[in-house]
From TrEMBL:
Protein name in the entry: WG repeat protein
Top-level taxon: Bacteria
InterPro entries reported in the protein's UniProt record: WG_beta_rep
Pfam families: WG_beta_rep
Organism: Algoriphagus ratkowskyi
Length: 521
């Protein structure tokens, strides 16, 4: 009579054995490729230089510095990471762990917002607040709205009543409370509008008849028949400008009218331009305005004054570069200087900005290149031309991409399906579904034979081919063989994680009556 049983021993193997489950093995190397440790996880996630997660089946573990399981995170997947909070998702909702391993919220909420040492969790209209300093979760009740402001105050709304439950007066009711990009909460009571600082104290008493946020810590309002521009301050807010003349604030443009006539372009705390004859102002970008005059002149106004002085025979002036500004006249674009003089006559349907003393222009159909003197460079035969950077531009023609030099000539004779410029001036190329790499001069360093390439740093490129991943240099030398399912790099700790499939080796132990055990693999 025989008794058969199986022992599973984990050995890395590429042997394919039918009906045997695969597991995952991770090897951890330093950046000198010296093996540091081996891990058995389905997946590893590097959230920060100190926070790493290991996953086995449906189990998540927070790992120690030496990559051993420290704390089980209960959930089945990492939902989000906002240091120091790890939001974890499970079958019944999301919960939260501190990155040190403490579970602070069970996995039962629909939404969790984080702010340093606070978490705001909700299910439907019900809200809870966890405060790490108190290590306590408080039920806030059923609310129409709850929000942690960008300064750490908590605003809640029940019906039409607002309150600040974390302030020194948590039961005080407001008619309105509003967060904004600044450091102050806009508050309204029966007496008027005011501003509240991060401590929950008024820095502008609620006496202003009308008040709204503009930018940063600046506010625009009306009080006692005066228009006011106010700057928030932690101790006491300051009125930076006040006027009995009408000031409007619409479409992010603030204008002042003197005796019913447009006279001033305003900024957040005062006058940006004071001039007669203004008829209208168009905002064309952040702190950029086209100012129109009664005599048909138009100028380009910036934060510090005129970028292009008012000039005739122009319909619009755009932001420029290298002292030249695209401007439109009679439907065509050219370039003007800061004095409002045409340097390149309006003759193009469209232009880009100058970059490295070259700009692109479009005729009725195609794009070409011009110098700062207006001289054509090459022929206008492209569907698109992107700005020059370090002597090379990317251009598109008939669905293919090319690299252009400053003479307007193509560096590569054969077009690519796509080209991406890396942050250090190299070029990732795609061709026939494969990826390669060009150096900063446009010469091929890695042929387009890979499914994926990711250039982590000089001479360290994570490459994937035939579904397997490895690391190669810019010359194509293999640093880590293309034999892995996944490679992660933790540069902060100088660690490289490699993941591979393996099949547990089956060792069969046979017991025979009256005889010693015989083992066979």
């Amino acid at each position: 009579m025989y008794k058969n049983f199986t022992l599973l021993v984990g050995l890395i193997s590429s042997l394919l054995i039918p009906e045997v489950a695969y597991s995952q093995s991770w090897e951890v190397y330093d950046t000198k490729l010296q093996l540091q440790s081996r891990l058995i996880y389905d997946d590893v996630d590097i959230l920060s230089e100190t926070v790493r997660i290991g996953k086995t089946g449906t189990q998540l573990s927070l790992l120690t510095n030496d990559l051993n399981p420290a704390v089980q995170l209960v959930g089945t997947e990492i939902y989000q990471y906002f240091a120091p909070w790890i939001l974890v998702k499970g079958p019944t909702g999301i919960g939260a762990f501190h990155e040190y391993g403490q579970q602070v919220l069970p996995l039962e909420y629909e939404k969790i917002d984080t702010y340093f040492n606070m978490l705001l969790a909700s299910k439907g209209k019900e809200y809870w607040l966890f405060e790490r300093g108190k290590n306590k979760t408080t039920y806030l009740g059923e609310l129409e709205e709850a929000k942690i402001t960008n300064t750490g105050l908590l605003i809640i709304r029940r019906g039409n009543e607002y309150s600040l439950p974390l302030s020194f007066n948590p039961d005080k009711i407001f008619d309105f409370l509003s967060d904004n990009e600044g450091e102050f909460v806009l508050a309204k009571e029966a007496s008027g509008f005011g501003l509240i600082n991060r401590e929950g104290d008024y820095v502008l008493d609620p006496i202003i008849e009308a008040l709204q946020h503009t930018h940063g810590n600046f506010y625009y309002g009306f009080n006692q028949e005066q228009y006011v521009l106010i700057e928030g301050n932690d101790i006491k807010s300051n009125i930076r400008y006040n006027s009995f003349h009408k000031i409007t604030f619409e479409n992010d443009i603030m204008l002042e009218y003197i005796h019913g006539k447009l006279r001033r372009v305003m900024e957040d705390d005062g006058i940006l331009l004071d001039d007669v004859g203004i008829t209208s102002v168009n905002k064309i970008g952040k702190d950029l305005y086209n100012v129109h005059y009664r005599d048909a002149k138009i100028g380009l106004l910036g934060k510090k004054g005129w970028l292009v002085k008012p000039m005739l025979e122009v319909e619009e002036i755009k932001f420029g570069n290298e002292a030249l500004f695209p401007a439109k006249s009679k439907g065509n674009f050219g370039f003007v200087n800061s004095a409002g003089t045409w340097i390149i006559k309006p003759q193009y349907a469209e232009t880009t900005l100058f970059s490295e003393k070259i700009a692109a222009y479009r005729t009725s159909q195609n794009w070409g290149l011009i110098s700062t003197s207006g001289e054509a460079i090459g022929t206008a035969s492209w569907d698109e031309i992107k700005p020059f950077d370090k002597g090379i531009a990317i251009a598109r023609s008939s669905g293919k991409f090319y690299l252009l030099n400053k003479a307007g000539s193509s560096i590569n004779t054969e077009g690519f399906d796509n080209v991406f410029r890396t942050t250090d001036g190299y070029f990732m190329i795609e061709k026939s579904g494969k990826t390669g790499l060009l150096n900063s001069e446009g010469s091929e360093v890695i042929p387009a034979v890979f499914e994926k390439l990711r250039r982590e740093r000089k001479d360290f490129i994570i490459a994937q081919k035939d579904g397997l991943t490895g690391v190669i240099t810019e010359s194509g030398e293999v640093v880590i063989p293309l034999a892995y399912e996944k490679i992660l790099v933790d540069w902060e700790n100088n660690l490289i994680f490699t993941k591979t499939n393996y099949v547990p080796t089956v060792i069969q132990v046979v017991e025979e009556s009256g005889k010693k055990n015989k083992k066979g693999a």
